[in-house]
Amino acid sequence: MKVGVLTLFPELFAAFATTSFVGRAVDAGILTLHLEALRSFGIGKHHSVDDTPYGGGSGMVMRPDCIVSGMEGAEQSLGVERAERRILLTPQGVPFDQRAARRLAASSSLLLVCGRYEGFDERVRYFVDEEISLGDFVLTGGEVAAMCVVEAVVRLLPGVLGNAESIQEESFSPSCSGCLEYPQYTRPPAFRGHEVPPVLLSGDHGKVAEWRRTQSLDRTRERRPDLVRALSPEKARGES
Ligand SMILES: C[S@@+](CC[C@H](N)C(=O)[O-])C[C@H]1O[C@@H](n2cnc3c(N)ncnc32)[C@H](O)[C@@H]1O
Predict the structure, then answer these.
(1) How far is the centre of ligand 1, averaged over its atoms, from the C-alpha of 222 (Å)?
(2) Contact residues for 99 (Cβ-Cβ < 8 A; gap 6+)
(3) Which CATH class is domain 2-154?
(4) In contact, 182 and 210? CB cutoff 8 Å
(5) How many angstroms does the Cα of residue 90 sit away from the middle of ligand 1?
(6) 97 C-alpha to center of ligand 1: Å?
(7) Which of 27, 70, 123, 183 could bridge to 64 as Cys pair (CB 3.0-4.6 Å)?
(8) Which letter does DSSP use for residue 123 in this model?
(9) What is the pLDDT along the chain (240 residues), one digit of tens a residue?
(10) 169-236: CATH topology
(11) What is the DSSP string of 26-92?
(12) Which residues line the pocket of ligand 1, CB cutoff 6 A?
C-alpha cells in the first residue's frame, strides 16, 4: 500500500515511520510511507500556506491553492496519478472506527491531509474523497490523527503482524460480532489477591470459548451498549 501524508511538520513522523510494525512494514516493502512537506508549496519569501479569514475573525486559514498543489505533489512522489482515497483530517469529519480502517486497508493508495491553525479553506473539500475525525475533541493539528489512521490501517495489511489471528479476534472484529474482546490473562495465576478465572486453566477448549463469548457480550453490554443494540437478537443472546 502507498500512503502519502501532507503536513507542515514531516519531522513529527520520523520515529513513527521507522519504529515497530510500521517500520517493519516499510522495510518489508508492504508499505510505502511518503511525507510531503506542505511548506514547499507555500507562497512568497516565507512560503506561507495560510492567510487571514475573509469576513474577519481570529486565527489563520489554510490556503486551498497550497493544499491542493501539495496533494498533487505528494501523489507525484508516490508515483500515482491520484490517490485512491484523498482524506482530510478534521474534527468535522466522520468519526474514525475499525470498519473504516478495514475499508481503507483494501485501498491501494491513501493521501492524508493534515490541517493546522483554524483549519482548511472550505474549497479544499472539493478535492478530497472523505473527511475523518478522531473524535469529538479538537487537536492542534492533523498529524496525530494521521498517525492513528495509518497505524489502524497498516496493522490490517496481510503480512504486517506476526500473528494474523490477533487481528481476526479482537475488539470490533467480525469474529467478536463487532463487540469488545473478552478479558485476557497471563502468568502469574494469582497476583496480589486477584486470581485467573479457573476455567482458563481447565484445558477445556469448549468451556473456554463459551466463557469468552459470554464475557465479551457482558463487557460490551456494560461498557458499550450502543454496540450491543446493533447486534441481531441471536447474537445479542450469544447464540452464534
Ligand atoms: C485547531 S484544528 C481546527 C479546528 C477548526 N477550526 C474547527 O473548529 O473545526 C487544526 C487542525 O487539527 C486537525 N484536527 C483537530 N482536531 C481533529 C480531530 N478531532 N480529528 C482529526 N483532525 C483533527 C485538523 O486537521 C484541523 O484542520
Answers:
(1) 31
(2) 172
(3) alpha beta
(4) no
(5) 4
(6) 17
(7) 123
(8) G
(9) 999 999 999 999 999 999 999 999 999 999 999 999 999 999 999 999 999 999 999 999 999 999 999 999 999 999 999 999 999 999 999 999 999 999 999 999 999 999 999 999 999 999 999 999 999 999 999 999 999 999 999 999 999 998 777 788 899 998 888 999 999 999 999 999 999 999 999 999 999 999 999 999 999 999 999 999 988 888 787 776
(10) Trp Operon Repressor; Chain A (1.10.1270)
(11) HHTTS-EEEEEEGGGG-BTTTTB-EEPPTT--SS-EE-HHHHHHHHHHHHHHHT-SS-SEEEEEEEE
(12) 89-92, 114-116, 118-120, 133-135, 137-142, 145
Beta bridge partners of 51: 61
CA of 6 to the centre of ligand 1 (A): 15
> Which cell numbers in the block locate residue 97?
472506527
Distance CA 239, CA 77 (A): 51
Which amino acid residue places its CA nearest to atom 22 of ligand 1? 90
Antiparallel, parallel or unpaired: β 194-195 and 190-191: antiparallel
Closest C-alpha residue for ligand 1 atom 12: 141
Choosing from 58, 89, 121 the residue with most ligand 1 atoms within 8 A of its CB, the one to mutate for a pocket test is 89
Cα-to-centroid distance, 85 and ligand 1 (Å): 19
Q: What is the pTM of this model?
A: 0.96
